[in-house]
């Protein structure tokens, strides 16, 4: 699935269930999701101990939650994330070529 296809699916779902939140609420949600991802990684690879097996969280699921919320934010701001991501990858590639020049 292309990123723009994912954005469309997220858009359909959000509109079906009441529409987009205000930008600051969406940003707060993204922060919450990133925190859950950090917790899952810290439990698996860091010093954090999970209280129970259910509370450990699955890194894959937490990453998907973060990505879903990023897609929603992109839709809210009418950003073609496919295009933006491709530009970022190209820009990063150029920077890395300079850094690792032989």
Write structural notes for this entry.
With 102 residues, the protein is mostly helical. The protein has a single domain (3-99), classed as Helix Hairpins. Helices cover 73% and strands 0% of the residues. It is built from four helices and no strands. It has helices at residues 3-16, 23-45, 59-76, 81-99. The longest helix has 23 residues, at 23-45. It is flat and about 40 Å long.
Descriptive terms for the model:
Helix Hairpins; single chain; mainly alpha; 102 residues; 4 helices
Quick summary of this structure?
The protein has 102 residues and is an all-alpha fold.
Layout of helices and strands, plus pairs?
Elements: H1 3-16, H2 23-45, H3 59-76, H4 81-99
Helix pairs in contact: 1-3, 2-3
Rounded radius of gyration (Å)? 17 Å
| Low-confidence runs | none
Structural class: mainly alpha
Q: Work out the count of structural domains.
A: 1
Straight-line N-to-C gap: 36 Å
Q: What is the beta-strand fraction?
A: under 5%
N-to-C SSE string, H for helix and E for strand: HHHH
Name the overall outline. flat
């Amino acid at each position: 699935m292309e990123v723009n296809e994912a954005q469309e699916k997220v858009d359909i779902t959000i509109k079906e269930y009441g529409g987009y939140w205000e930008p600051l609420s969406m940003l707060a949600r993204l922060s919450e999701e990133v925190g859950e991802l950090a917790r899952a990684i810290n439990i698996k690879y860091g010093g954090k101990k999970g209280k129970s097996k259910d509370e450990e969280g699955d890194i894959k699921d937490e990453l998907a939650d973060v990505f879903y919320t990023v897609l929603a934010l992109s839709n809210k701001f009418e950003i073609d994330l496919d295009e933006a991501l491709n530009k970022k990858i190209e820009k990063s590639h150029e920077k890395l070529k300079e850094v690792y020049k032989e």
